[in-house]
Amino acid sequence: MSNEKKIEERLWDIANDLRANSGLSSAEYSYPVLGLIFLRHADFKFIKKQKEIEHRNQGSRRKIGKLDYQAEGVLYLPETSRYYHLLNLPEGSNVGKAIDSAMNAIEEDNPDLKDILPKGYSKFSDGLLVTLLKSFSQIEVDVEGDIFGKIYEYFLGKFAMSEGQKGGEFFTPTSIVKLIVEIIEPFHGKILDPACGSGGMFVQSARFVEEHKKNPAEELSIYGVEKTLGTVKLCKMNLAVHGLSGDIREANSFYEDIHKSVGNFDFVMANPPFNVKKVDYEKIKGDPRWPLGLPSTDNANYLWIQYFYSALNEKGRAGFVMANSATDVSGKELEIKKKLIMSNVIDVVISISSKFFYTVALPCTLWFMDKDKTNTNRKDNILFIDARNIFNQVDKSHREFIQDQINDISNIVRSYRKEKNSATYNNVPGLCKVATFNEIELEGWSLNPGRYVEVVEQQKENVNFGKKLAELNKELESLNEDAHKIEDIISDNIRKILREYNK
Questions:
Q1: 164-451 has which CATH code?
Q2: Of 182, 392, 429, 461, whose CB neighbour count within 10 A is largest?
Q3: Fold of 3-155
Q4: Distance CA 323, CA 422 (A)
Q5: What SS3 state is found at 268?
């Protein structure tokens, strides 16, 4: 186990004690714990920058102040908000009140964070808070890379697992986000995520820019939308802990185009909620974000897809997670899909296996759009990748991509695009295929990679049959549970149709 992973797991065990000893649910304790991680990270960044600024200003009589830190993209921390101040409070101090005061002072000096940071620490015992503060202070600062940011994301993921369906509203597994970023390559420009959750798409985009030796704050402009205020706060904290800022708003993306999105963005990235029901079509009629028409079903997947499409400028790229069911549709949704295909905007579709997400066991697909594709040799073609057999098994219930797998998949896309220094592209049976529009039409305009990627014969493996059967049975039970839910939806829709028909 890596040193970094040991740190993450040790801190998670400590944070989990907060739930056990406070009687609070994960929903109640997760935000305060993330607040302390935020504070520790901000303090580390502040100290590091303080040394740099003081070294540069040796011999100068000018007093170093708040503006010096803000100019360097670092949160300014007043004395009472410093981590060592909280660690060294006299015995008998009201620790919860002191942490609340620290958070308030940070917000006063950093207006972007006003009313964002967690408060209410007095509900926890002083002993428990002291234990947490001491534990977080032991994070090793000399670990390579952004250790605090990685721990923060690790905690987001663990809280998402604790929260189940609710947790999935704010967290998209990091390896999925990394793959999306590697494929759309957001080197410079305006990024929109209209279902931004905790902001993981923005954080990974910034890391991508840093890896290419550029300053994310100068290269990227960040815009996000979330329908709940709590998740907006979580996103702003996540941006701040990574030294980023953005225009993150609370709104319902279907009914408010709060960022005037049409044709306005270089990149769109999202993991929208799948199969949303009961969108009021009367409210959204005539909205330019849906230029290809409204779906005929009570399902918002093709509203999201059109939203991403319409937000792109003439050279924009989009990458997003989508339900498998969106690859094969009928009625008005099929007509919308055909228009998207024929407009040459859909560039790549990738199948992902089950168990990547904390909230659903079912597989999904990643869609990639490129508005400039019509001006390339990829015109009238779409690359399909079946990555369902590519994963690292984290535990019985969860999978992820390791970095080598992310590189392998994204390199296939780079070869297909004929990017500089990329290998020559070749179709690989069972993995990838470039299909022409004629081939896609013959398949009923399906965007399911399995329709195009040839099946290869599996080699026989020495496996424990009983164990394998038990695992498959468990997965079957999960799929059956999801199928029953779908059956209920279908039955409900049929009843609605019959009621309309019999009027």
A1: 3.40.50.150
A2: 182
A3: Ferritin (1.20.1260)
A4: 30
A5: strand
